[in-house]
Design brief:
lipopolysaccharide transport protein A fold; about 65% strand; about 160 residues; mainly beta; 11-stranded antiparallel sheet; 1 helix
């Protein structure tokens, strides 16, 4: 079983490396296969995708090796440095460096916690836009809003 996982992971890595040399993601999962009809890799169980300095985990995911799009669900996490998002599902626009996380979204980092229905995060601008039932706890103070924009790099609200 482990040799199947290793060989599948190795195949995915070789394909990703050839198609997106700059990104070079590392992908692991309990079960993987390539769906010829959709052109997507289908990953199930303990999915972990590392790309640049980002880590995405999920219960299951589909990955487009050309566009580097990722559709993940089942208790997802998206982590970069000290920024840690959780939610029910994620869609990553790989070549655009954007992610949309839905369903009970949480952001946690030192001294800050934000919950919302959804968040869209842009890795280039480092701006996260939270929407729906937004609650913020920062250094002992708490407040709510319908929508909040937060600059991760500057650690400030816009």
């Amino acid at each position: 079983m482990r040799s199947k996982i290793f060989l599948s992971t190795l195949l995915i890595l070789v394909l990703f490396t050839g198609l997106a040399a700059a990104a070079k993601p590392v992908v692991t999962a309990d079960r993987t296969y390539f769906d010829i009809s959709t052109g997507l890799y289908v990953l199930n169980g303990n999915v972990r995708i590392e790309m640049k300095n980002r880590i995405i985990t999920a219960g299951q995911a589909k990955v487009n090796p050309v566009s580097l799009e990722i559709w993940g669900s089942g208790g997802i996490t998206v982590t970069e440095n000290d920024v840690h998002f959780t939610g029910d599902s994620v869609y990553v626009y790989g070549t655009k460096d954007k992610a949309k996380i839905d369903g009970g979204v949480n952001l946690s980092r030192n001294g800050l916690a934000i919950t919302a229905d959804t968040v869209e995060f842009n890795w280039r601008t480092k701006i996260a836009v939270f929407n729906g039932n937004v609650n913020v706890a920062q250094n002992g103070s708490h407040w709510s809003a319908d929508s909040v924009s937060y600059n991760v790099k500057l650690n400030s609200f816009l």
